Amino acid sequence: MSSQITGAQSLVRSLEAAGADVVFGIPGGAILPAYDPLYDAEHLRHILVRHEQGAGHAAEGYAQATGRVGVCIATSGPGATNLVTPIADAYMDSVPLVAITGQVPSGAIGTDAFQEADICGITLPITKHNFLVASADDIPRTIAEAFHLASTGRPGPVLVDLPKDILQATTSVLPADVWPPTLCLPGYRPVTRPHGKQIREAARMISAARRPVLYVGGGVLKARAAAELRTLAELTGIPVVTTLMARGAFPDSHPQHLGMPGMHGSVAAVTALQKSDLLIALGARFDDRVTGRLSSFAPKAAVIHADIDPAEIGKNRVADVPIVGDCREVIGDLVAALQGEPRADLAGWWRQVDGWRRTYPLGYDRPTDGSVAPQYVIERLGRIAGPEALYVAGVGQHQMWAAQFISYEHPYTWLNSGGLGTMGYAVPAAMGAKVGRPEATVWAIDGDGCFQMTNQELATCALEGIPIKVAIINNGSLGMVRQWQTLFYDQRYSNTDLGTRPDGAGTSAGTSGGPGAGAASSAPRGARRVPDFVRLAEALGCVGMRCESPDEVDATIDKAMAIDDAPVVVDFVVHRDAMVWPMVAAGASNDEIRIARDIAPDFDYEEA
Ligand SMILES: Cc1ncc(C[n+]2csc(CCOP(=O)(O)OP(=O)(O)O)c2C)c(N)n1
Ligand SMILES: [Mg+2]
After folding, report:
1. Where is this region: Disordered (predicted)?
2. Could you tell me which CATH number the domain at 196-359 has?
3. Could you tell me what percent of the chain has a pLDDT over 90?
């Protein structure tokens, strides 16, 4: 009656005890002992990815879609360093992630052993915490602590590094006997309950404000506070803006919603913040992409700043009323404090805000040459797949259009890499989201550049039965960078042409993709598509489709929607010169928002 198990067995049982049901990873020498008990784990599915970056983003997608902790696993050295990008991504976007890495045996640490990398050192500034485990006895407690740290307070990534000898050692500390282990995290006690005095002061300011705005960030989603937010918004009648990380936290169709603020935000959202007298920042962090030039951001506004992370408060903008706490509790308390209180009349403010909204709605030009507007593809996708689907974007122009032109009605239906802006996020994150929400339709909306960074995970999707759908918005270039070259580098397109479609496709010089059409591109490529995304998709075990005309957009999306038993990739060949508007140039003041090149909104006219 031996009650000894190996460290590796303890790891697998501890992950199960912590509630993990899926782990994304790739084996290798140092982590190999853990893969043996994984082989017959009953409650933990391992999904073999093709690149560790894919494992990390898949775990993030799973976490963002479900609210649970995402788990990824890799071997030492290059396996671990391949996780660095998704770990940094999770850190910037506060995603609960536990990364398990193998490490060289304890005795070899520090000797430049084969596949040794100091992953704890490397990830120190991009993890909430990391552990180098020193004894197999410590594994249950360490895993419990990692899950606790990742998912409480401000969520974030935690790394657990396990030397091979620790995985191979035996231990009599059985997870089943000790679960839940007593955590040993001195000093870690996130404040979730807001201070009553701060709430009262905030309520007083909200009642008196004449031009207030609810500035809603991703923290509201992390706190699962969308319902409370709606109650607060409807009780007060205050206009709402949702940041890139908060899309879906408040229904886009709600009459009080002004859309997204920031560099590519709506004129109404950006301008309402600029002219506000009170910003009620909830789980938002005054990111430079929202504030524009900080010194001229919302110059007349007082600030109520609620965040679970005290380090965020006052970091970029001084808060008149700082509130440390969980957004759900904060909003609930604000609602209670405001109930039945008299409030300033917001009719004049709404007249102004509605004027901006009416005069400057989001829009785009239809190409006159018969090519497809990328915004049109995304708009139709949102309409046809509907508000119950999940949309997962890459990084670039397509990401901004996906944030602008899809109507998000529910929380956790919009996933993207906001803080780090990681190209390659979409396909693996969509894979993880689909694993977490198998009943939902999951569309990755990706760029032709981003897609080439991580599309190998489509092989994982095909073999593991994870039928995601991918819309490649193929503009033939690193479009967002090209947009900056158009605007700020005199149209000198240095190294942004990708050659993913025939020359001339989707330009005013070409037809929609006829062989050799046009010669407008900088590098002559003839009729080649490198890569041919349809054939690439098929090679990866997916269904591949192409759409090159506006008339085919709906039918193509319908066809993709009808396929449920395989991943689908659609190559949407779109107009190559489309740009993202509105735009506030980097470093400029939000007062200098442009609705098209050199065209500023006419606020004087509107206010007259
Ligand atoms: C890993 C990484 N490398 C470089 C960048 C810089 N970058 C931001 S957007 C972009 C272009 C993305 O191109 P594509 O995927 O085709 O999207 P598009 O803008 O054309 O829609 C680049 C290179 C980045 N964000 N991430
Ligand atoms: Mg592109």
Report:
1. 499-525
2. 3.40.50.1220
3. 94
